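Quick one from the shared queue. A colleague (R.T.) flagged Acetoin utilization protein AcuC as missing a structural entry in our internal table.

Convert sequence to structure tokens.
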Amino acid sequence: MSRSVRVIWDDALTSYDFGPTHPLAPVRVELTMALARGLGVLDRVELAGCDPAGDDELAMVHKRDYVEAVKRVSVSGAPDLGCGLGTMDNPAFKGVHEASALIAGASLAAARAIWEGAAEHAVNIAGGLHHAMPAMASGFCVYNDPALAIAWLLERGVGRIAYVDVDVHHGDGVQTVFYDDPRVLTISLHESPRTLFPGTGFPEETGAEGTAVNVALPAGCGDAGWLRAFHAVVPPLLHEFRPEVLVTQHGCDSHALDPLANLMLSVDGQRAAYAALHRLAHETTAGGRWIAVGGGGYELVQVVPRAWTHLLAEASGHPIDPATRTGEEWRRYVRERTGETPPLTMTDGRNPEFRDISAGYDPADPIDRAVIATRKAVFPLHGLDPMP
């Protein structure tokens, strides 16, 4: 399906570093790029650098006084709790503005590539900082790069943009920025806010004309249930909304091994989600215009590198056989870099099959109840029947 794919990368993107004990460790993107390179994935894409986002670009989403506060922290390294820097989630560090602006610039470069026709798909795996608010750092996120990419495209006349967020945490920052903007459809599939940060993302949060969509899944949900929920909500809404561009956030912290959350997906289930989003980028009115960004993911060796290498391979149009071995050179590098035992293959050995909700739903099943709650909240606002 893919024609041209641009991956935005600069080694300096790993400078977004909250310190050696913080769960958002930049080694995860370093290992991802090394694995993708070792498996030949990067041979099938165009690698391109980027410039940091400028103040006017950041101001499309963020308050200017917030940007100035981040800059002050960046120089001094001193906390500023007024802008959310200096907490356990968001430690202050010297250079935080420059590191954050570069990640934002990478997603803007992805948007520019799509807009100018230089690429059909564009990927920034270092991005996906979806919790950042207009005037506050939140949830490991300083500047909201997916929201900036969307805002940049809107300023250039794109009429409808769909954003699909598969991170285990609610995409609250992006939803907040566009909550009252009917040009942007935000769909977030996440663990229930009753059991996980940030405590938002209930089905009743529907935004302008039903363009905020939230699927709040119960803790313990695995591949079959997650994929069932995805297919019950995302494809019908995307087809009805008719986006001109699809933007997707690919936090892989929905994996069973992730230490910060409670869903139970496998790398195989995540790979199936990436393939489904790729198809939708082509099958909908987006016409293949697809921007994909990273996101959360805190199992740094077993999960993130494999999940996002699958994402890059899927975007390239050359998916990786799950049985593919990771390669001895990469495994040696992982041991040297982290001291951990790396995975041998690109699969968890799961077959991510699911039963489509069109065959009927079970009101006693908490996953089906979550799906129906979302469909009842938003489907009628799009002229869709909420019941299967």
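The first helix runs from residue 27 to 38.
The beta strands are 5-8, 46-48, 121-124, 161-165, 184-191, 212-217, 245-249, 290-293.
Added to the table.
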